[in-house]
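ugh ok fine here u go
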Amino acid sequence: MNLRWGVAGLGRGTRFVEWLSALDGCEVVAVCDVSEAALKRFDGLQTYTDYSEFLEKSDLDVVAVITPGPEHASHSLAAMEAGCHVLSETPCVYSIAEAQAVAAAVERTGLKFMLAEDYIWMGWCQNLKAIVEAGRVGDIVFAEAEYTHDCRGGMLVDANGKRYPASAWGSREDLKPTWRASDLPPLFYCSHTLGPLLYLMQDRCTTALGLNTGAKVAPEVCPVDMESGLLQTEAGCAIRLTNGFCIAHPFSLFTGLYGSRGSIRMVNLGGLQVKAWFEDDPGDGWQDLPMQYQERADGRHWVTVMLEEFIVAIRDDTDPPVDVYRAMEYTLPGICAHLSAEQGGELVAVPDLRPN
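structure:
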């Protein structure tokens, strides 16, 4: 079964064209982007600036939705209405209503939908999974994660699509904030932190409480600098998330697991450091756990593994690893925590979209 793919959005989507083209049984036949300049790089493929025309004329089996975040839900819905399976970049939805609509479309059409949350296929997450499954941390009672980095360098765009730093605000009349500045509350982009935690915990969130800083760093460009959420899980655990992109802080990813028999702390500050303490081997305290950040023990590229597992789900008519329900479980708690912050820290229920 040869799958005909279309890729919409040629920023990060360019990489998806490369990854998919290298897989047996996959053929990228069409690409779509509003930028004519971006399309010129794809000689030999069908190219479209109009998404509806892209769906109508390309005869696709699967669409990779890598367009701007606020368009992900509508583009996914349109692709399924056209009879296509969907791989969506994060965040896959921007509201509870969008999540409900996407889940309903999957249920109605029987098509496959998967969130491209590639972090759970990375080497560090797979290593932690093996440790958790071996029972070395016992029952996880609390978890936390932080994903922060300074994105101010590309938060403005001119009429030709060229990026400028947030500090250029007011220097030219044609500069406007990108969607990542104006339309991406930090916790909407929570699947890189929450996804791995829930993957390791095999749990889901039920309630969310959030607080944010407002806009202090570049208020004309970005409405929220950083956000934190506290989440309660179905199993009675607690999770803390922190995300921030308009902040004077280089890239960092932190994950902490607190268990009944041990604890793990992973941090990437330009280099990976993982420390653990296990009750069955306490030693003199924290011990180093050598591992790679992205590279897997099997030597395979983590995104290739993710794509291959989605392809198998399509061909075998099985549930994708991050199906529509799990995708929303990785996404909605961040949206609900942001809603809580906007409501002064009131507790917000996280809906369960799985059929009863």
